Amino acid sequence: MPMPATQSALYALSAERLDGSTQSLADYAGKVLLIVNTASRCGFTPQYAGLEALYRRYRERGLVVLGFPCNQFGAQEPGSEVEIGAFCEKNYGVSFPMFAKIEVNGENTHPLFRLLKQEAPGLLGSQSIKWNFTKFLVDRQGRVVSRAAPATSPDALAAEIEQLL
């Protein structure tokens, strides 16, 4: 398994933040990442609270949660980047990095999610993301170590996160 190729592939990517700035994923090298496709009007939206709790509990030890809003599932993220940021901050006190809206499936899949899905396929090897709040855990070397379903609560990932820290 070519570890350096996986590592360099993840860290070679970048994504647009909610404020329009470009964030290189290389800036997160050496951190444990929990990468999540999010939505503000989803039954799983309250997971923002659990994601923020994980971030606050483990950020000093090297965890970074990265939120990627997506409007591909039931049009549950219709707002602008400004509206998404205001919603997350006001309702859940989100302080972890949030990014501009992306697509996680189809022809316009963001390169990060294309890589995540290749490295950690879903059930029966599917590379599709089935719904909002699918979670990918990435180790300090940039390797995707697991994928969790939308129904998996953020707190259920705490033990696995502890092992990677």
Which secondary structure elements does this structure contain, and how are they paired or packed?
Elements: H1 3-11, E1 14-16, E2 22-24, E3 32-38, H2 47-58, E4 63-69, H3 81-92, H4 111-119, E5 135-138, E6 144-148, H5 158-164
Parallel strand pairs: 3-4
Antiparallel strand pairs: 1-2, 3-5, 5-6
Textual characterization of the structure:
The strands form two sheets. A four-stranded mixed sheet has the order 4-3-5-6, with helices on one face. A two-stranded antiparallel sheet has the order 1-2. The protein has one domain: Glutaredoxin (3-Layer(aba) Sandwich), CATH 3.40.30. The longest helix has 12 residues, at about 45-60. It is globular, with a radius of gyration of 14 Å. It contains five helices and six strands, in the order αβββαβααββα. It starts with a helix and ends with a helix. It has helices at about 5-10, 45-60, 80-90, 110-120, 160-165; strands at about 15, 20-25, 30-40, 65-70, 135-140, 145-150. It is α+β, with helices and mostly antiparallel strands and about 160 residues long.
Q: From the coordinates shown, what is the CATH architecture?
A: 3-Layer(aba) Sandwich
**Average pLDDT value?**
91
The parts where pLDDT drops under 50 for at least 5 residues are 1-6
How can the largest sheet be summarized? 4 strands, mixed
How many domains in all? 1
* Structural class estimated from helices and strands: alpha+beta
- By CATH reckoning, the class would read Alpha Beta
SSE string: HEEEHEHHEEH
Q: What percent of residues are in strands?
A: 15-25%
Extended strand count: 6
CATH-level-4 superfamily name? Glutaredoxin
Number of helices: 5
Shape category: globular
- Classify the helix fraction into a percent range: 25-40%
Kindly report the CATH topology.
Glutaredoxin
Distance between the termini: 22 Å
